Amino acid sequence: MNQHRGRRSIESQNFRGAVCILRPAVRHAQTGGGRRGDLPGFTLIEMLVTLSIVSIMAVIVGASFQGVLDDVRMTSEINALQQGMNLARSEAIKRGQSVSVCPGTATSTACGAGNDWSGGWIVFLSSTASPLLVSPGVSHGDTLTSSSVQTTPYPTFTAVGYTFFGDKLTLHDRSSTAGLYRCVVFSAGSWGVHTGATCP
Fold it and tell me: What residue ranges in the chain does DSSP mark as E strands?
């Protein structure tokens, strides 16, 4: 009888000991194995620094992308002007008569006064003033101007495709960024295109 009671007492002590060992292990698992301050995450300062870096990068990338867009647009505009010049020369040769390119607007078939070509240009037969092409001009605040001080301040191509016009047309963006300059320079009866710092 006493032997049976002693066995029960030993078993009860072993059970209580196992419970005491189990309880800290449960608490350890519930708290993630450490103090609350050891949990992974970001501090407020780290988040502010990260946001500042992201904002700076966004500004840099945005400015660079805008520069690419401006360059593509202005290249397209100067190419359109060259197409007008090529059309005038080819039509002069084909028709055997003079063809001119003058400043104008997209809504008019008459040459404009002055040296501002920003509103567009017109390719026309010199003899009849009949328009062959009316261009809408440049956009986004870009400006296209002529340096001519001649009585006829625009190029006229003869029946052999030659022009005595010897001035230049200069294309600027709205901020006059030197790296984006485009110039059409006339010399020796023809023309060439210069860009950026090479634009005289």
Answer: 99-103, 121-125, 131-134, 143-146, 156-157, 168-172, 182-187, 190-195
